[in-house]
Amino acid sequence: MIKLIRIDDRLVHGQVAFTWTPALGADCLLIANDKVAKDEFMKMTLSLAKPAGTKLLIKTVKDAATFLNDEKSKNAKVLVLINNIKDAAALAADVPEITSVNFGGLRSKEGSKLISKAIAVNDDDIAVIREMLAKGIELEVRQVPTDNRQLVESLI
Fold first, then answer.
1. 78 CB contacts (<8 Å, ≥6 apart)?
2. Which residue among 9, 64, 101, 155 is the one 20 to 30 A from 143 at the CA level?
3. Kind of pairing between the strands at 55-59 and 28-32
4. How many other β-carbons are positioned within 10 Å of the β-carbon of residue 15?
5. DSSP code of residue 33
6. Which residues contact 38 (CB under 8 A, 6 or more apart)?
7. Are 11 and 87 in contact (CB under 8 A)?
């Protein structure tokens, strides 16, 4: 069962380990990222940051979709971590269960603008956001579970 889809360019860090994972009761962190899935050093580094007692899976976006659509995975309480909006849209397109995406953190990059204190997007990101909204996917900004939800559509 998918507990949350989160876009955060830091992937696994304190907010994920100490607030989101226990608040959701997640027992599995799934990182969906093509680059990280092929980088043994990044895998090792991210495994050091995962909360104790939580399983960490690192898969390509395509393999993450296969995992999430597999009936055998339905018993896991999965927090999915993605580091960019484009990959979130690709995963949502392949996994019908995804109806909501949390924006947790996207640092500034060239051509981007802040839409909240921790989310910076550029024109390409906004185009993908609009496509996701048009498909009926709810997009919200919250860094931690106790923050008030802000809808992305009101921020762009």
1. 1, 2, 3, 26, 28, 29, 30, 68
2. 64
3. parallel
4. 19
5. -
6. 60
7. no
CATH of the domain at 81: 3.40.35.10
Q: How many domains does the chain have?
A: 1
Work out the percent of the chain whose per-residue pLDDT is above 90: 99
CA distance 45 to 58: 12
State the first-to-last Cα distance of the chain, in angstroms, to the nearest integer: 30
Look up the domain containing 84 and give its range. 2-154
Per-residue pLDDT averaged across 45-65, rounded?
A: 96
Both tokens of 111, joined, read: 């051509």
Residue of 10, 13, 62, 77 marked catalytic: 13
Q: What is the DSSP letter of 155?
A: T
The DSSP bridge pattern shows strands 28-32 and 78-82 to be parallel
Catalytic, 13? Answer yes
8 Å CB contact between 107 and 81: no
Q: What is the DSSP letter of 28?
A: E
Rounded to an integer, what distance in angstroms lies between the CA atom of residue 24 and that of residue 17? 11
